[in-house]
Every structure is written in structure tokens, then in C-alpha cells.
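input
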Amino acid sequence: MVQKELGVEKAGKLVEAALAAIARQLRDEGVRKSVVAGGETSGAVV
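output
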């Protein structure tokens, strides 16, 4: 539904930005290890 409304590229960028923000917050709170499985979106966490 989101892809249909926003388009594939914009929806993908939105998900990547959200995952990156979550990863940064976890890092800032002291989390040092995490597992992220996936394709394009896992690259946003590295």
C-alpha cells in the first residue's frame, strides 16, 4: 500500500532512513551488536 502511494523508490528510501535512525539511537544508547537481515535496507544500518 505504501509503495503504491509513494512509489517504490521513495518508499524504499523512507524505510532505509527509519532503520538508520533506529540503529543510530540504539548505538547512542550503548548497543554495540545487532543483526540485520535483508538486502538493500540492511545497508542503511552499517
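quick obs: Residues 20 and 46 are 8 Å apart (CA to CA).
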